[in-house]
């Protein structure tokens, strides 16, 4: 099933991948419970992984495309985690 990613979900996903790597089940359980694991894999390989192939550093690409501050994203992650506990 196709998942329409919001800006907030993409930002949270980038941070979650940086923290949990390819542990899709853990990302789903801890921070993005409403996102299908296959949608996460597709997002990673279509967007994040392709940035590496172009030769740009992932961090530089993510910083330029992320409109939310890191502090805002961490607050969102904490809210999601606290709601799921």
Automatic annotation (TrEMBL):
InterPro entries: Homeodomain-like_sf (IPR009057), SANT/Myb (IPR001005). Residues 4-46 form the Myb-like domain. CDD domains: SANT. It comes from the Eukaryota. Pfam families: Myb_DNA-binding. This is Myb-like domain-containing protein. It comes from Hexamita inflata.
